[in-house]
Amino acid sequence: MRVLALTVHEEETYLRQLLKAGAAGYVLKRTASEELIGAIRWVAAGGVYLDPNVAGKVVTGFLESTAPVAAILILASAASVRGVNVLVV
Predict the structure, then answer these.
(1) Distance between CA atoms of 58 and 79, rounded to whole angstroms?
(2) Which residues, in sequence order, are CB contacts of 88 under 8 Å at separation 6+?
(3) C-beta atoms surrounding 55 within 10 Å
């Protein structure tokens, strides 16, 4: 089962907890319906989706960690090329 979290929380704490728990995606409730549908389809197809409004926090957190290269490589192996582009934007 794949999990796509739909939440109002933009704080890095919530984001990290959900990703560590195995969530395959994180979407904010204020997201447009078309984007939400796209995120659902993306995750259902095996991808990883992060709302663009919180994706920068994930990248920043990995860059500040003690092993940033390893963390980014793990994300890259878990996501498609498009998913990685979304994470980096």
Answers:
(1) 14
(2) 55, 59
(3) 18
User: What is the residue whose two structure tokens read 């582009």?
Assistant: 85
Q: Which two tokens stand for residue 88?
A: 């980096």
Taking the CA atoms of 74, 80, 82 and 83 in sequence, report the sign of the dihedral they define: negative
CA separation for the pair 56, 41 (Å, rounded): 22
Phi, psi of 9 (to 5 degrees): -80, 125
pLDDT digits 0-9 by tens, 26-71: 999 999 999 999 999 999 999 999 888 888 777 676 666 655 444 4
